[in-house]
Amino acid sequence: MRKIRITFLIVLMLLLGLFGIHVSAETELIPLKNSSGTGNVQHVRTSIDVEIPKNYEATTQEFRGVWVSPYAGDLRPYTRNDETYKQALIEILDVMESNKLNAIIFHLRTHNDALYSTDLAPQSSYVDGMDYERWNYLPWLIDECHRRGIEFHAWLNPYRIASSKISLADVLAKYRNCPKNPANNPDNVLIGSSGVILDPGRPEVRDYLIDVCMELARNYDIDAIHFDDYFYISGVDDSKTQALYSMNYGNPSSDDFRRLQVDEFIEGLSQELQNLNAATGRYVQLGISPSGVYRNSDTYVAPENFRYDANGTLTYPTASNSRGFSHYDGYLFSDTKKWIDNEWIDYILPQ
Question: What is the pTM of this model?
Fold first, then answer.
C-alpha cells in the first residue's frame, strides 16, 4: 500500500505541476498541510505554499490499482499444488474487490525469466514445477479478474537479469539451453555495480523484448503491458555498444545515446501494440511506472508562466523544482516526457 500512497501524491504533484494539467479558475485552492498538520507543504527552495483543490471532485473513471509480485513477497511461490495457488490468488482478488480496486499489476517477468508458459525465457523459480498442460493459471487468473471488473496489467522488467553482481560465466550457463534468449550471447549482457541487465543498445535485445511483450499480448487477454523503473543500471560499461552504433544516431553524448536506445524500444513496442489493437479491436495499453522525479531543476516556475506549443505540449519548464533521484538521467536514462509527448505510452504512474 505504501507504493500506492506514494504514487497518488506524486501523480497529484505532476497534475498540478510539470506536465501542465490545470485546475480550472473556478476551483478554490487551499494550502496542502504537512503530515503533522502543523504547517503547509512548500515548493522546494521557496516559501510558496503547495495548493490543492478544496473540494474533491469525483471522476467518472479512476485507476485504482495494486502491484502484486512474488519477488516482493506479495504471493508465495507455487508449491506444486494447483488448488493452493489458486486459493492464494483468489484471496488477493477478494481483498482487491473489498477495497474497490480495479486494476492488478501482476509481475510476470522479474529477472529475464517467465512466470508463464514460454520458450523465450527460462521459467521463474516462483512457478517451478507448474505443469501448464494440466492447469495454466494465467488465463484463469485473467478471466477471474475480468469477471470481477478488474483490469489485468502484465508487469515486466524488460532488461534485468540479476539484482546482484554475478559473473558473465554464470549468466551464460543459465541461458545455455535457451537459444531464443539474447542473454546466451556475452555481447548482449552488461554487468553493473549491483546487477546484470540485457544491453538496451543492442538491436537483437530490443527485438527480443518486443517479441516477449507481443507474445503475451497475443496469447493472453491482458489489458496492458507495464514496466516500472528498471531500465539501465548504475556502473555499466557499454562503450563497445556505443562504438558500434553511436554513428547511427549522429554520435550523441553517452547519456543521450542511452536515452535513445530506451526510446527506440518504447516506440517500437508502442507501434506493435497499436497494430495489434487495430487488427483485433482490442485495447492493450502500454504503461510506465518510473521513479517519482522526471528531471531536476533548481528553479521554481509558477504555473502561469508555463509555455506550450501549438499542440498543447509543455515546452517550458522541462524539469521540476526538485532534488530527488531523476529517471531522465541518474542511471535509468528514461525520457518519459518524450514518451508522453509522442503518445507512445497510454498512462504513467510515477512512484
Answer: 0.86
